[in-house]
Specification:
Layout (H helix, E strand, L loop, with lengths): L9 H11 L8 E6 L6 H13 L3 E6 L11 H7 L4 H7 L2 H7 L4 H12 L8 E5 L8 H9 L3 E4 L16 H14 L5 E5 L5 E5 L6 E3 L9 E3 L4 E4 L6 E9 L4 E11 L2 E6 L3 H12 L7 E7 L10 H4 L6 E6 L13 E6 L3 E6 L4 E7 L2 E2 L2
Parallel strand pairs: 1-2, 1-3, 3-4, 4-8
Antiparallel strand pairs: 5-6, 5-16, 6-10, 7-9, 9-13, 10-11, 11-12, 13-14, 14-15, 16-17, 17-18
Helix pairs in contact: 1-2, 5-6
């Protein structure tokens, strides 16, 4: 029996470019992939289809440094930023600080000013189909915030997602996602609990509440695809409690990991499966800032169903996710060579407004409450 050919992704890629990215005639499109995972095969396939639909397309595959939130190598910066700008950043000592994530706010400001004087980026739209996320990097932040590039970050994206979590009514998703974001506006803290033993309180006062609704059609817009989440960076030092993790980024843990959090930092990881405890311990101990409680998010995509791929699972309607590591690109102040999300299913999330004494349950054991 002859094996069935996989379904064509032409219509899905057309929707991605025209609906999500708002691609216009003459705009320069770059498909970015890395050689890890499938070796860049899916990025190349998307690039071929995209070029047939839009001739001003090129595909770039690079060798990754390895790890979500780590900066891509210099050659990728050279390929996308204005000619001579990366060389100038290197000469002024900025590039090394950006690549290592050791520079302070002044480093990014100086790099921004330099780029503003150097001319436009070499792409108007970037679709990053990489293994490791480029979302929480200065590279992405400079491209979107300074150069005005529209940027879809799709780490761990799989072909089948075109026919699942990407096959959604984007208008309805945007409405629901933005209603939830407004529901969190002005909250002072969020309380997360679950029947698995999770009890976590996070201070969020003053932090921007952001929507990832899949509509990346305006100058400088950035988000994940598949999309569907509301997220924020909790206030540093103001997370306390216990987080019980049953799922990792790509599979269910053999046993739950019990993560103790004090003053916004992971201080202890316990569990019966010692190899999994060591895996998380090693990840968090690799850099002092990796233990930071970086993100709190809520999934809003009714077409997302897969628990075994964190790019999609954090978008599942009614889930909560918490990330460790870097949050400097979306309202926090911590830079780290890591941003790793973990998803909680059937959790309850309550927003609290301390000054007015108000409370609102936005998720009740995974059921939508907004």
């Amino acid at each position: 029996m002859t094996a069935k050919s996989p379904p064509s992704i032409e219509d899905a890629v057309h929707s991605l470019l025209s609906v999500n990215m708002g691609l216009k005639e003459g705009e320069r499109l770059l498909i970015l992939g890395d050689s890890s995972g499938d070796g860049g095969e899916l990025a190349r396939e998307i690039g071929v289809v995209a070029e047939e639909l839009h001739p001003v397309t090129r595909t770039l595959i690079f060798d990754p440094v390895g790890g979500h939130g780590q900066e891509p190598p210099r050659e990728v910066w050279d390929a996308l930023l204005a000619d001579g700008s990366v060389e100038r950043m290197a000469a002024e000592g900025l590039l090394g600080e950006l690549l290592s994530k050791k520079g302070g706010p002044g480093t990014f400001e100086r790099a921004s000013n330099l780029l503003s004087e150097s001319g436009p980026a070499k792409a108007d739209i970037i679709v990053a189909v990489t293994t490791y996320s480029t979302s929480h990097t200065s590279f992405r932040k400079l491209l979107t915030q300074v150069c005005g590039v529209r940027y879809a970050s799709m780490p761990l994206f799989e072909r089948e997602m075109f026919f699942g979590s990407m096959d959604v009514d984007w208008k309805d998703l945007a409405i629901s996602t933005n209603v939830l974001a407004r529901s969190l506006d002005g909250a002072d803290r969020c309380e997360v609990s679950s029947n698995n033993g999770t009890r976590l309180v996070l201070g969020v006062s003053g932090r921007p509440v952001l929507s990832d609704d899949g509509m990346l059609d305006q100058i400088g817009k950035f988000g994940n695809l598949p999309a569907g989440e509301v997220f924020l960076a909790p206030v540093e030092d103001l997370a306390e409690g216990v987080l019980v993790l049953e799922w990792g980024p790509r599979a269910r843990f053999k046993g739950p990991l019990i993560v103790t959090i004090e003053r916004g930092r992971v201080v202890k990881v316990d569990g019966k499966e010692k190899d999994e405890v060591h895996w998380l311990d090693n990840m968090l101990s690799a850099h002092p800032q990796n233990t930071n409680i970086a993100e709190l998010g809520i999934g809003t995509n009714p077409a997302a169903t897969r628990p075994d791929n964190v790019l999609e699972s954090e978008k599942i309607l009614g889930t909560v996710h918490v990330a460790f590591g870097d949050n400097h690109t979306f309202g926090g102040v911590v830079k780290a060579p890591l941003h790793q999300d973990f998803v909680l299913f059937d959790a309850t999330l309550t927003a609290v407004w301390e000054r007015g004494g108000g409370r609102r349950v936005l998720l009740d054991e995974g059921r939508k409450g907004w």
